[in-house]
Amino acid sequence: MTNWLFTLENLIVVGGVLHFGILLASAAVPKVLDWRASLREVDSLTREIVWVHGVFIVLVIVAFGLVSIWFSSELADGTVLARAICGFIAVFWGMRLMVQFFVFDAKLYLKTALLRVGYHGLTIVFLFHVVVYGAAAVLNS
Q1: 125 close to 21: Cβ distance less than 8 angstroms
Q2: Fewer CB near the terminus (10 Å): N or C of the chain?
Q3: Residue 17 pLDDT
Q4: What share of the chain is helix, strand, coil (3-state, %, to 5)?
Q5: Under the phi-then-psi rule, with left for phi > 0, alpha for psi from -120 to 50, and beta for the rest, what region is 78?
């Protein structure tokens, strides 16, 4: 393969597409975790906060994806703003990766091969985001 395929700009576009893949995978979470039944046991404000936070996280991920696809060349150009945005995206996914490793205990819910592959696939995608956007933020000055 040629090196032009692995330019920072192209990797950022791939990152943008992967953001939408994360959303597709995340769509299964409420069903797999049976949020409807679980959240029925909490008060209405707590239930609404969980759903609203979920929607806002979805909006942030959509924004990451759209900005990465539409403005990949700008994000790869090394300006202070591009580096700040890429740094934020890298930190966001780095923190999410830390939660994956040190907070969540998903073993109980990974009952099928598809769920296990999806869980570990998402871990790889989170790491991809940390590396690509981190490189754009730190190495591209």
Answers
A1: yes
A2: N
A3: 98
A4: 80, 0, 20
A5: left
Q: How far is residue 71 from each of residues 20, 50, 106, measured CA to CA in Å?
A: 16, 31, 35
| Residues 82/76, Cβ–Cβ less than 8 Å | yes
In the predicted model, what is the mean pLDDT of residues 24-47? 89
Q: In this predicted structure, what is the pLDDT of residue 6? A: 87
Residues 6+ apart with CB under 8 A from 80: none
pLDDT in tens, 85-102: 999 999 999 999 999 999
Counted domains in the chain: 1
Q: Which amino acid is at 133?
A: Y
pLDDT class of 111 with cuts at 50, 70, 90:
confident
In angstroms, rounded to a whole number, what is the distance separating the alpha carbons of residues 91 and 106?
Answer: 22
Specify the pTM. 0.90
SS in 3 state form for 66-121? Answer: HHHHHCHHHHCCCCHHHHHHHHHHHHHHHHHHHHHHHCCCCHHHCCCHHHHHHHHH
The better pLDDT of the pair 50, 130 is held by: 130
Contact 125, 22 (CB under 8 A): yes
